Amino acid sequence: xxxxxxxxVDGNWLYRNRPALxxxxxxxxxxxxxYCRMPKLLVEETxxxxxxxxDVVRTLYxxxxxxxxxxxxxxxxxxxxxxxxxxxxxxxYMDPGTGSDRGELQWVNMELGAEMLHYAMTPGVYDIAVLxxxxxxxxxxxxxxxxxxxxVLIVNSRPETGDRPDFRRLSQIPRxxxxxxxxxxDYANELKLVREHTVRTCRQCGRxxxxxxxxxxxxxxxxxxxxxxxxxxxxxxxxxxxTREQ
Length: 246
Known about the structure:
By secondary structure, the chain is α/β, with parallel strands linked by helices. About 35% of the residues lie in helices and about 20% in strands.
């Protein structure tokens, strides 16, 4: 019987660590990540090491949106994760009035930890918790998850040569994990999304146009241009995925 894994993605950590993937492939301008493929890919190495089948039963992605920016691109990204990749997304809309980005960003840590612990305490949901992130704030949660009889796999990026010698990685904290770390940048080739050119029909006007956009809804370049010109100027914050427009 296959082991069951749940993947918990710290979207803020993943966004900050995308440059490690770009550097691995010497892609100065970056590239899009194949989020649909990522969960299964990350457990393959552990499955091979255990000589066992591992089914990813659910992937949870935790992210933020800055309320001061036009959130349309980020909302489209989260919608893509839900509809096309089968993720469950947990999104926090940051209030610029708080004056504390760190406090707002820690919502991701708290929500992710709460969900991981909740499902660990629910019988039969998962055997292995896969954490995509390296914040030591997760250490107490991981210890409790392991105390509940679950195993933990941490997905990280390889240490940079310039890292401080006193910098502690989450996996170095005792009783937080059960397997060797999986390094995201080791899978840069497999995680690079290669888009195919297809002809799609614009939802607004019905015009067909060739595109590489794989989102659920498609709008042609003319309709997108009309929409942008009709809206008030706004700072367009880049989505956590770093995806480009259609």
